[in-house]
Amino acid sequence: MSARREDVAKEFTAKGRATRDRIVAKATEIVYENGVANTSLQDVQQAAGVSGSQMYHYFPDKALLVHAVIDRQREILLARQAQLLDRLDSLEAIRAWCDYVVRGARRRRGRGGCPIGSLASELSDHDAVARAELAETFQQWSGLIRDGLRAMQERGELSAEADPEQLGYALFAAAQGGLLIAKAMRDTAPLEMALDAVIDRIASLAA
């Protein structure tokens, strides 16, 4: 959450924060299913069971709500993957993370794609604040992959000629691009092939 929005959230009472959290939670669900453009404040208001005045009190415009959704999706995503990402410092761990990504896509036959990736695709060209927040999320997320590869290299498990920065971005891009293609094709095969290609490259550089 940005410093400004965090300060705003702290101004609410415990009951107020709970109401705001409920609104954001419902908005996150609806935006993931329908996209930002097809989600109105009224849709969220009805789903959260709040009045129009309450909705306006917490989110006087749609942009503020969308930015709160980005914060929530980042928290959810990193929390769900924390156990895998915190130990992404071996080929086995990298494969486990890729398997996790593929399983999630298979469950929905690609529908929905990556929550952060979908938001980036829809907002980056039209909302500078959202674009910056999403870019920060991508940096934080992919940074955990790069950190794991650096740790492998420092332990001598990855060749000195390997570039952890390049490999980390390649793996992350394979996941994001593969999820986007899976979303359009309703088929995870391209995602799996893209991830396997980068894993094979990393394996070829294992010391």
Provide structural commentary:
- This protein is mainly alpha-helical and 207 residues long.
- The chain has a single domain (3-204), classed as Tetracycline Repressor, domain 2 (Orthogonal Bundle).
- Helix content is 77%, strand content 0%.
- It has ten helices and no strands.
- Helix 2 (14-34) packs across helix 5 (62-85), helix 5 (62-85) runs parallel beside helix 8 and helix 6 runs antiparallel to helix 10 (189-204).
- The longest helix has 27 residues, at 128-154.
- It is elongated, with a radius of gyration of 19 Å.
- The relative contact order is 0.11.
How many individual β-strands?
A: 0
| CATH structural class | Mainly Alpha
Strand fraction equals under 5%
List the total number of helices. 10
- Element string (H = helix, E = strand): HHHHHHHHHH
Helix content: over 70%
What are the key terms here?
single chain; mainly alpha; Tetracycline Repressor, domain 2; 0% strand
Summarize the topology:
Layout: H1 3-10, H2 14-34, H3 41-48, H4 52-58, H5 62-85, H6 91-107, H7 115-123, H8 128-154, H9 164-185, H10 189-204
Give a brief rundown of this model.
The protein is mainly α. It is built from 10 helices and no strands.
